[in-house]
Amino acid sequence: MRRAVRVTTAACAGFYPFVYGMDRPATALYALFGPVALGMLSPIPGSGRQRAAVMLRALPVGLVLVALGTMLAVHTSAAVIGMLVVGFVLAFAAVAGPRPAGAAPGLQLFYILACFPPYAPEALGERLTGLTLGVLLLVACERFLLPEPPTASYRESLADAVAIAGRAAAEAARGRPAEAAGAADRLRATGRQLRFSQIPPAERPAGAGRVDRALTQAGSAARRLLDLLARLGETPAPVGTAATGTTGRGAGGDTASADLLDRIAALCAATATALRAGRLPPQSGSPDLETAIREFQALRITQATGPPKDVLPLPLLRRQAGVLATAESARVLETAVGVGLDGRRTPPIQPRELFWYADTRTSVLWWRRLAGNMTLHSVQFQNAIRTAFGLGAARLVAGSLDLSHGFWVLLAVLTLSRTTAAETWKAVRPALFGTLVGAVAAGTLLLVVGRHTDAFAPVLAPCMLAAFALGPLFGIAWAQALFTLVVSAAFAQIAPASWQLAADRIVDVLAGSVIGLLCGLLAWPVGARHEVRRTMAALLHSSGPLITGTVGVLLATPPGAAPLPPTLPLLHRLRLAEAAYLQYRSEPSDPSAVLMDWHAVLIAANHVLVGAQWLPRFDQPTVAVTPEAAAWARTTAERLVLAAERLAALCAGERQPPALPAYRRPPNVPGGGAPLPMLIDLEHWLSSLTAQLARIESSVPPSWRGATVGRS
Questions:
Q1: Are residues 229 and 169 in contact, defined by beta-carbon separation less than 8 angstroms?
Q2: What whole-number distance in Å separates Cα of residue 239 and Cα of residue 475?
Q3: Residue 537 three-state SS
Q4: Which H or E run contains 461?
Q5: Can you tell me the distance from the alpha carbon of 398 to that of 384, in angstroms, rounded to the nearest whole number?
């Protein structure tokens, strides 16, 4: 209702003075159409201030598009070519984030309205004047007339999650397992609240710049940190020994782990404060987390290679591996937040592969985003192709058949097309019924009133308010019926009209619906359902070499003899998979269908990526790895690769996915010797991945096993 009041006020404030005060119908039409296009037909997210800012930035682009459409209206072929280019570019703007994607439909309509006859370049000034006034009126209404209230920013949501993680780390440092069951569930629930599907679209850091990339990475690190803290809370505290110097502090008296967890808690508290303040805190004199991690790792190596009395029990060593993984996630979180709050080009940050964007020019970052999505496996590219060809075909049909008010054909294509053919058909059926009802009502009104155009003046504002308020509430049929009354009342005041105006509306909407359905049937008719399977399969394929490569680096003799495996292929696949997943989640699905846990695949890929970066970072003692331990690590890595390939085959719909050998538990330390900390960390990483991939496979729908993609 608030949005309906704002759009109606802005549109009428620009329309009536130019029609009845200055007798400039062209200016009045664009003053009316600007607020309608950007205010109602464009799903621009955000608060009143945010929406007003997006509209102001969109205004210069809209003026260029109106000028371009006015010039290309000279011939149908020129207008069609322009429509193809404009349609693709604006639809592909979705790669820049929710705000450009939200403004794209309104900008499309500015070109659409101007590219139809009459070819009147002399009227360009009036058109630009009307559009400018209409958009500025809408901006004022968005800002001051019943504005949308602001929502919590992503930084604030991230700060709350990080603060909760800090308190959980402090609790873990004091070893309080009695609260573990409920605390673990709350930590995981907090992590789920950072998923983009739980964040308002206007607040998602979805851009290609350093700040948005860093905040996105910080969110992933925070979710992983919360999950690791939940696992620490669920792990029974090992029993301390005299060798540990039990003091009642920490699990099993492990004071080193307790100190590191306290450092994590302090870092989380400082990071949460910085996120809320929007600036980095001043440098403190205490050692940073990086130094604390290295000291912790050095202590573990000393214990492993020292006298037998200093050797910790294996359960405590495994807990230390979990604490170290938690600290590494906190370090990635701290670094990502630093880049996100700084926003400037910085020296190379380690690990370089994770923070490759930190010292890259913004123009290069945007080029990589655009080039990375210029592939048929990108859902944004698919949507842009579908939209461009649909609008181009509609412009060709409207121009070739000389349809009256032909821009309604393109408006129908733009507003009724969906990412799947089934959803397009569901939208078209009620839209046609609503248009028919609205056309009958408008035709009757035109017959009664005749050519007394002044009679439509008191009708326009109430119809507009009802259409914009009730349409989104009651559905497409109501929206189309009431919008038909709106456009009939508006055009009848600009020029005398007969009942044929309503008939033209029916023909145009029908033509646009048919074109939209054909495009939906011919161009990726199932939306992201198949694309998410392909991109997730490719993501799983890319994870395998990184797993075996990381194990090879850690087991190489001498240390450092094997090169680090590249991570950029996995990063690229991860971006495409995330985009496909976001669209997949936005498309309606059968409530009774068994859905694959795609989000778990994304988490597993992030787990592979982070582990491949932090595991090889520490210097290891020159002690030979036992053949039994090395064999287990290599065998488990190969089994994980087979598990990833098996999941990829199930995603791709292959009939006979590879079988998995039985899982072998990690070997105990033979002869009472101390295991290398590196092996414990590697075991923790591989075991976690094994459990994650097993959970993912348990979510595979039964119909996928032995079925091809075409039949699933």
A1: yes
A2: 62
A3: helix
A4: helix 457-474
A5: 21
Confidence at 712, pLDDT banded by 50, 70, 90: very low
What string of DSSP letters covers 273-312?
HHHHHTSPPPPPSS--HHHHHHHHHHHHHHHHHS-GGGPP
pTM: 0.82
| Whether 82 contacts 391, CB under 8 Å | no
DSSP 217-283: HHHHHHHHHHHHHHHHHHSPPPPP-GGGT--S-SGGG-HHHHHHHHHHHHHHHHHHHHHHHTSPPPP
Nearest to 73 by CA among 65, 536, 614: 65
Q: Pull the structure tokens for residue 9.
A: 């006020």
Instruction: Determine the residue type at 86.
Output: V
Q: Report whether 211 contacts 343 (CB < 8 A).
A: yes
pLDDT (tens digit, 9 = 90+) per residue, 450-489?
Answer: 667 777 888 889 999 999 999 888 888 998 889 888 888 8
Q: 190 near 295, Cβ under 8 Å?
A: no
Nearest to 188 by CA among 233, 251, 142, 131: 233
Can you give the pLDDT at residue 248?
Answer: 46
Q: Identify whether the C-beta of residue 250 lies closer than 8 Å to the C-beta of residue 257.
A: yes
**Which of 178-182, 305-309, 666-670, 700-704 is modeled with the greatest confidence?**
700-704
Q: Are 679 and 633 in contact (CB under 8 A)?
A: yes
**Maximum C-alpha span of the chain:** 103
pLDDT digits (tens, 9 = 90+) for 515-559: 988 888 888 887 778 888 889 999 999 998 999 998 888 888 776
CA–CA distance, 273 with 277 (Å, rounded to integer): 6
Q: Which residue matches tokens 């990475």?
A: 217
Q: Which residue has the tokens 């072998």?
A: 664
Residue 620 carries which side chain, given as an amino acid letter?
Q
